[in-house]
Every structure is written in structure tokens, then in C-alpha cells.
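tool=predict chain=A
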Amino acid sequence: MSATTSKPSTGRKIFRILLIASVIAIIVYKSCTGDGKIFPNKNYSKNSSGEEILLPVNFPTDNEAYAASHFYISQSLTNPQSADYPIMGGYSIRAVVQDTSWRISGYVDSQNSLGNPVRKKYYIRIHYLGGETNEMKNWNVLDYRFLN
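tool=predict ok
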């Protein structure tokens, strides 16, 4: 073969390799955006065994259920304005897909009637009724209690 026929072939190979590498890079980037999940627009929770499960479309996220639970727990505190919930850690959330409910346990730091700091552990089971997740009328408390 002459040198002129091998150069276009080498150029095509390089182009193909770069094209494939670019497509792979785009797929990897798109699959890793958003919570590090392969499907970033999907909603995940953990079942009772602790395994990660994919939740149905339009199913509220664990964070939305956790935020809704704050409303109900805070209402039971002596000083609701002082309620401080952990952002990371310190709580457990389990979605029950069959009945669109969540079992949440955690703690809240607040102040008692004398202004002294108090940490209360709690358990709450809330049910999503449908509609906007940030409207409390769309959530129902099935059970809650303070554990200490």
C-alpha cells in the first residue's frame, strides 16, 4: 500500500475512536448527574430490608416526606419555632410503596418552656394523599410518638 491510502484510513480510525469516546463520556456524565444515581430523574428509597428500590413516577421523594414530617412533629413541641432537625444523618426513612407512606424515625433539637435545649427522639408514619408535596393538606399522619 502506498502512504497516501493509509493516512485517510488512520484518520478515520482516530475519528471513530474519538467519536466513541465522546459518546461514552456523555453517557457517563449524564448517568452520574443527580445524586450519583444511574437514572438521575428517578426516585429511590430503601425497603424494609435496607435495599434500594426505584419508586413510581410522581411518587414523593424521601426528602419531601421528611420535610412533611417536620411540620407534624414540630406542632407537638413546646416551642415549635426552636425545632432543629438534622440535615444529614440522625434519621431513618423507609418508603412503603404499596400505600404511599413513609416510616421516619429521628430526633429533633428544640427548647423547652424554660428555654433549655431538649433532644427528642420520634417515630412518625405519614401517608401521601396526592397533590403538591409541599402542601400539608396532602399528607396524613398515620401514627407518631416521641420515644423519650
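The CA atoms of residues 121 and 142 lie 18 Å apart. The two ends are 85 Å apart (CA to CA).
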